[in-house]
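Throughout our pipeline, every protein is held as a single compact record rather than as scattered files. Such a record has a labelled line for the sequence and another for the backbone structure tokens. This encoding replaces a full spatial description with a residue-level series of whole-number codes. For reference, a complete record is included directly beneath this paragraph.
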Amino acid sequence: MPDTINHPESQIDISESAIRALVNSAVQSCYGIVGVGRTRTKWAVTRRFRASAIEIRQREASVVVRIPVIVEYGLPVVAVAQNLVKSVTYQLQQALGSIQPHIEVQVVELRQSASAPVSPA
């Protein structure tokens, strides 16, 4: 179902799936993000980046995006989240024009990637 975003110069109809695809692209290029989705106990993560886990809502003339992410263990979580917010905001502003998106990052899990060496205990 397309969302209608009221722009000062016109009315724009954008589907949630189009916005979700833009956000997912930005998330995949962000350093420190291992995946998108809920933790395994709450929701099975079957793919590395689940675009369907990204929530899109319209609030007045803005787009609200909630992204549940899995962050690489050992990295500064706040820095990764801030980088993600900047990346998604930039991507959406480039695609949607002067609309100011509101990005909410929810860190649901810290995970050590398989390629990271494990230090002996």
Helices lie at 16-28, 77-96. The longest helix spans residues 77-96.
